[in-house]
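[09:14] KT: can someone run the structure on this one? pasting the chain below
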Amino acid sequence: MASQPRRGGVSLPDRRNPKSGGGGAASIISRISQSEIVSRSRQVACDGAYVAKKLLKSTGKAAWIAGTTFLVLVVPLIIEMDREQQLNDLELQQATLLGTPPVGQK
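[09:31] RB: done, structure tokens below
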């Protein structure tokens, strides 16, 4: 009968003797990895990663809004101020060449 294969049913693995020295490191690692502290730490790490992801997403959106607003509103203002300064410098240079006093000085 020993040579006939089993039909159906579930076969369980052989149990190890806990007092024997075999498999000590594996059992310690499995007990540590299944401990409450490790599972709680894993949960805290997952929560931290979730918060960091949300924060980076919202920071990216805020940076996009700020950058776009800067390009639309501030850059044209800077360009116009530069043009005005160039025009004032040109008028001052022409007034100096022609010998007339600059505008605003007496």
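[09:33] KT: thanks! Helices lie at 24-33, 36-98.
[09:34] RB: yep, looked fine to me
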